[in-house]
Amino acid sequence: MRRRAAIADAGEKTSLALVSLGCAKNAADLEVMAGNLLSKGYVLSPDPDRADVAIVNTCSFIASAREEAEAEIDRALRLKAMGRYGRVVVTGCYPQRYPDAAGRFPGVDAWQGVPQKWVEPKMPALRLTGKAFAYLKIAEGCSHRCAYCAIPAIRGRFRSRPVASIMREAKALLETGCRELNIVAQDPMLYGCDMKGRTRLTDLLWKLDALEGDFWIRVLYSYPSEITDEFVEWLVNARHAVRYVDVPLQHTVPAVLERMNRKGAIEATLAVAEALRDLVPGVTLRTTVMTGFPGETQRRFDVMRADLKRMQFDRLGAFSFSPEEGTPAAKMPGRPSRAVARERERIVMADAAALWKARAAKMVGMSFRALVVAPMVARMESQAPDVDGVVRLADTPRARRARPGDFVRVRLTGGAGFDFEGVVT
User: 145 with 152: CB under 8 angstroms?
Assistant: First the structure.
């Protein structure tokens, strides 16, 4: 996800232009960085292509992310050569993964990786997401060792953020009008595992739920084998809990999961969808799967495809395997060709689109509570930011009066792709 920020009148102060690439966790990092800079007197440039300092916050998770990062760095340097940027700073996962690569980009003034300790954000930090919602990062790094993933090498081991720091940020966000806290980390379910005492994710979630106000709490990413009875209880009973669970399965065939080094999740993977639907009425389920991993034969792909049709996830994403240097999977034999992997990705997404089309048709005519996230745009509980589409509001007096951060009731009148059209009632 690419985000640019440039809003304020720079005047005589040092102006910033910001580019955020990659996941929500990356965006949260840049928000903290920008919030601290703004507190020191910097301002956002009114023009994203003209500023004293340009910060390009990068991702390097897979090849396409690296290519995007390199393109954005090159673009920033071209603008610098034209006199539109004074300095170019590159931050995030790309310089963390490739600390010696700065020489490939003459003209970069600073090459900064990922902070290795928690940086307290100045409150309120800059929100690239707008007023209505925010990403609340509760941990850094990852202690899983999935065979395909370079994140532990980039971001380090799993490190929980102190509860007091999270609560201060959450309160500040709510005070500035935020109405949806999206809890993010590489694996939120592990929160507290590295802390002394018995603090766990649900302890934090109940503290957040006790805060005053009308708002949503959405937990993004739930490793299937780590979903506990306590987490389910929170989903069902908490005042602010959004009944939405994103369970990244990656695959459903045990032999492939073992090669992925996710064998501890095999049993949970095969049962999680049915179990959550039984335990959490009205839950929305999302997952992500990978095609073309080494050892995925045609038969194993067909089994995964059948499993996904049986599980009937409400939302589904797929991506083809990318061999990442330094990971065990990069050297594994039995890898399908890139063309085969991409074709399988296309098939999975076509299945998901067909399922979604039928499900969306049944939702038309129904009414739902929704959060206005931009003028004439809202999201329902079943729509996570950036990945699940939105509700585009019909131009009516009620819709025009609604402001980002308002909750409204919408009746769905139609849909296109993953978006809906709706009327504020």
Answer: yes
What pTM value is reported for the model? 0.87
* Alpha carbons 343 and 353: distance in angstroms, whole number: 15
**256: its two tokens:** 């492939």
Contacts of 114 (CB under 8 A, 6+ apart): 29, 92, 93, 96, 140, 154, 155, 156
**What residues make up the domain containing 395?**
367-424
Question: By C-alpha distance, which of 388, 381, 372, 386 is closest to 424?
Answer: 372
Are 296 and 391 found together in one domain? no
| Alpha carbon separation from 241 to 208, 214, 215, 293 (Å, rounded) | 10, 11, 9, 35
How far, in Å, CA of 252 to CA of 31, rounded?
Answer: 36
Residue 40: CB partners within 8 Å, gap ≥ 6?
A: none
> Do both 328 and 350 map to the same domain?
yes
Instruction: Tell me: do 339 and 261 sit in the same domain.
Output: yes
Q: Which residues of the chain have pLDDT under 50?
A: 6-10
Domain boundary, last residue among 360, 384, 404: 360
Same-domain status, 379 and 247: no
- Residue 399 domain-assigned (yes or no): yes
Distance set, CA 403 to CA 175, 212, 324, 393 (Å)? 16, 20, 44, 12
Q: Find the CATH number of the domain harbouring 350.
A: 3.80.30.20
Tokens of 51: 């500023």
Residue with tokens 């599980």: 311
For the stretch 95-150, pLDDT in tens is 998 988 888 999 999 998 887 666 576 555 667 777 899 999 999 888 888 999 88
203 and 74 co-located in one domain: no
Query: 35 and 74 in contact (C-beta within 8 Å)?
Result: no
Based on the structure, what is the number of domains in the chain?
3
**How far are the Cα atoms of 97, 210, 291, 292 from residue 105, in angstroms, in the given order?**
15, 48, 33, 33
